[in-house]
Amino acid sequence: MIKYLTKLREETAKFEEFRLQQIPREQNMMADQLAKLASSNQFDGGRRITLLSAAKPMVGLEEEEKKEIEDNKEAGKIKLRSARFVLIDGNLYKRGFSSPLLKCLNPDKAKYVLREVHEGSCGNHSGAHSLARKVLRQGYYWPTMVKDAFSLVQKCSPCQRHANYQHNPAAYMKTLESPCPFDMWGMDIVGKLPRATGQKEYLIVAVDYFTKWVEAEPLAKIGEKEVMKFIWQNIICRFGDAKENWVHELPGVLWAYSTTPRKSTQETSFNLVYETEAVLPAEIGEETWRIRSYDSQRNSELRREDLDLIEEKREAARRRVCIYKSKMAKAYDSKVRPRKFEVGDLVLRKTENTGPIGKLDAKWDGPYIIAEVIGPGTYRLKKGDGKILPRT
């Protein structure tokens, strides 16, 4: 509004006479609708949101002497709330619904009761909601029971080591855009798989970000030389189900993937690479018009023309990929539960499945120290002696 006011003053200075008159809304419906339309448009720019959290409960827990309340309305509220409390032998009780009288505790006594019920001689390290309800059933009450129970469970080392995995993403999605085919690749390693022919237990997969073309190779072990060899030779290899014959089934899976239209590009990977659709076996068994009208003499000329026109199709596919990634990122980010750590923070890491894991084994190990913040949701960890953890 300050910029608007400044601009208005600059423009009004150009006139000899200026008069401002307010028009009722009923007589200026068009401008009113335009103003509402402008305010309803979604703003894509960044904005700051201030988050306020209550560090202390609205109801004080400490004894405090207060003077007589002069406001009759405020006094009525306090009188109405105090009707649910009663003082017996110097102890404050609350009339509850689950129990006739609930003893009110101060912060120190509340902390003792929580710890004793949670991890004492009869404690079972129950969850926060269960812990709060259990304390309530024992006949205790204070205004922040659930919040304090959550805080205690989050600080309990055995509970954190056996806590459930958090499947919600910790950072917002960062999409990548490839300018042209084969310019940017994504790689991943799958394994260990059931041991197959040739002692192969791993699968290395590479996907082109533009055409979605897939290359894969089964390997007996994963190392620097094997990965470099795969990238260098650019071998189109095999993939299949997780049985012992998955190595032999890989060519058919890759062929089916390359000849199936992708939702992001609305084209097949084969078409974006070669500017023509692959001939499927069904077209040979039951001839289509493309097979019947095949001209071997004009084939080379038509192929050259197709290659000259492929850039237009790739550009259209690139735009569709951008739109698809934007929608995918929006859906992904709606499920994000942000978790941010700083250098020096102590954290637990998900236990690696390097061997048989029992049901009662800890799901998290550590604690480790954040050594470096690499990117959103990506950190490098180190042990207490300063040794960097591999694969972090």
Automatic annotation (TrEMBL):
UniProt protein name: Integrase catalytic domain-containing protein
Coiled coil start-end: none
Any one of the GO BP annotations: DNA integration
Sample GO molecular function, one term: nucleic acid binding
Alphabetical list of Pfam families matching this protein: Integrase_H2C2 (PF17921)
Every Integrase catalytic domain range: 177-346
High-level lineage: Eukaryota, Viridiplantae, Streptophyta, Embryophyta, Tracheophyta
